[in-house]
Amino acid sequence: MTRGPVESVLETVGNTPLVRVEAAPEEVPVYAKLESFNPGASVKDRIGAYICEQLIERGELEEGGTIVEPTAGNTGIGLAIAANQLDLEAVFVVPERFSVEKQTLMRALGAEVVNTPTEDAMGGAIERAREIADGREDAVVPQQFANPLNVEAHERTTGPEIYDALDGEVGAVVVGCGTCGTLVGVARYVLEREPDVHVVAVEPEGSVFARALGADVDEDEYTIEGIGTHELERNELFDPEVVDEVLQVGDRAAHDELQRLAREEGHLVASSSGAASVGARRVAERIRDGDLDVPHDAVATVFPDSSERYLSKHIYGDFEDWQP
Ligand code: PMP
């Protein structure tokens, strides 16, 4: 799509390309939304822009106000870009162990980064974020894991973009789940137009979203970054009403696939994209083999970010050297 010049980088959020995954079955194509095309190079730019704009519109934040968010990653970068362009202050509370690359990018965008002890985990970061917000005049903690604006951002942008690009011919939506904002938002938009679309949440083996649908899965560590949960009660946006199935993908399968996507298809994507691709291809194969009935023979997925952010974790090395 060609477009004329725009006034702010914020206007370049969204409208990312949808590209066919070549290795998927001929008869049931898989299409992946390439979210690294956003200005902060991830799907989280969408919620950064949407949440800040909505908080301002609703009068919950004024110019000069502060966004305080406990986040270790892409959400901080997305919110920092929006804050930068909307004249807001941004403070991110990050447990120490998280990757310095992302913290460097947040600071470069003008945000303040506050570290909390690794042993206090995300719970400690959330608590600290609340304290910081309480100590400021005009501050809001959006809390992406519990904020309906996260889902709404995708219901208003990612969902329609996918649906329109495929002329409504979507049979299944197969998307990785972290906060589940992307999956639930896309699914809600598509289901409203085609109630029989099959909706699949992808999580790493070792994550426990599947328990929300009654499956008995073991909890374990995993290396795939950006999706999965060990604390189901914190993931308030996972909606069992819209999710038909939770599909688990192992670290090794996701790692093999992200390297295959680079080598064979020219995609520089990270581990949550590898997992999404494996999940979407499995669902497409079941549709092709007649094991799953869907209204259209096409599967939509999302590749949330790029591999460049994880090079120091040896994402392109041997599986054994790949670091969490
Ligand atoms: N992949 C990556 C790399 C992410 O940063 C995130 C966000 N946590 C996701 C996938 C999952 O997106 P969501 O939070 O919308 O479920």
Question: Can you tell me about this structure?
Answer:
- With 324 residues, the protein is α/β, with parallel strands linked by helices.
- It has 2 domains: 9-37 and 148-321, Rossmann fold (3-Layer(aba) Sandwich); 44-140, Rossmann fold, CATH 3.40.50.1100.
- The protein has helices spanning 44-57, 74-85, 100-108, 121-134, 148-156, 158-165, 181-193, 251-265, 271-288, and strands spanning 18-20, 30-34, 66-70, 89-95, 112-116, 139-140, 172-176, 198-204, 245-249, 299-303.
- Helix 2 packs parallel to helix 3, helix 5 packs across helix 7 (181-193) and helix 6 crosses helix 7 (181-193).
- The longest helix is centred in the C-terminal third of the chain and has 18 residues, at 271-288.
- The radius of gyration is 19 Å and the shape is globular.
- The structure holds 4'-deoxy-4'-aminopyridoxal-5'-phosphate (PMP).
- Residues 42-44, 73-74, 176-183, 225-227, 270, 272, 304-305 line the site of 4'-deoxy-4'-aminopyridoxal-5'-phosphate (PMP).
- Counting helices, strands and paired strands, the structural category is alpha/beta
Shape by Cα distribution? globular
Between the first and last Cα atoms, what is the distance in angstroms?
Answer: 37 Å
* Pattern of helices and strands: EEHEHEHEHEHHEHEEHHE
Distinct compounds present: 4'-deoxy-4'-aminopyridoxal-5'-phosphate
Overall strand count: 10
